[in-house]
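Thread: Newbie trying to understand structure tokens

Hi all, I'm a second-year student working on a class project, and my supervisor (Dr. K.) asked me to get a predicted structure for one chain before our next meeting. I've only ever worked with sequences, so writing a 3D structure as a token string is new to me. If someone could post the tokens and maybe explain what I'm looking at, I'd be very grateful. Here's the chain:
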Amino acid sequence: MSRTAELERGLVVGSHGRHVVVETPEGRQLICHPRGKNNQAVVGDRVLWLPSGDEGSVEQIEPRRNLFYRQDEVRTKSFAANVDQVLILIAAEPEFSESQLARALVAAEAEQILPVIVLNKSDLAEAHARAWARLAPYQRMGYTVLPLNLKAPGLAPELTALQAQLRGRATLVLGPSGAGKSTLINRVVPGAQAQTGEISTALNSGKHTTTSTRWYWIDSTRQTALIDSPGFQEFGLRHIAAAQLATLMPDLRAQAGSCRFYNCSHLHEPDCGVIAAVDTADEGDGISPSRYRIYSELHAELSQAPRY
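---
Reply by user tm_fold:
Sure, no problem. This is what the structure looks like when written as tokens:
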């Protein structure tokens, strides 16, 4: 029998360092190691693996639909592959960073992944109203923006609406510290702690440290999944060219066709459709001042020569 005939298919459901946890079609999970330096799988990858005792080796990564990742000057961090949508969880308190939100949205646009913005802590009425107003430009751009109160008991209407948005999709969850990401996972995923335990067992209970990214099945038919990602302080976009940036920001993209110059940077050129559309009143269909400021800062950052 050839080596290729011995390969089995699996889904990567956990990762830590160079170790991954692969789930077989029957639901068994086991630790696998990549074969070769350029064969590093991430959560969400469909792989071909070779059994070796109670572990295995990843021999091949099947073609990806997408890969959601961030990149700064030093390193590239991959979150997950083959996802249907990215859920960006923010909260009314502590106040969320619009720059971090914009960066995550740009990364999703670059991979053509559907983004969903969820604003938690709707029980904090005044703070939630202020935060909701800050998200008005994103709603005008066509992004789905949902309110949420994870403290509400049972299947509250907001949680039901979110579950409908998740159904039938593999969703990567991003969120800063304090937004409620762990609470969301435990509320939405039946037996999340049990599934975490299964992965810990696959990692041989301490032989390897806890996984930093995890795939959770929400339903017994394995059609709906949440992917819990590690937190981050910065979200680098160095893999995106400065000239490409405006095409990945829907509000700027909608106005860029009105510019006099085809290669307009939207920073200083005359007759720039983007600059003309900046809405100082921060209402209507124009570009909000905060969004234009974020664009200008990101463009400057991405225009810098790499440091070696």
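A couple of things are worth pointing out once you decode it. The two ends are 48 Å apart (CA to CA). The longest helix spans residues 289-303. Feel free to ask follow-ups in this thread.
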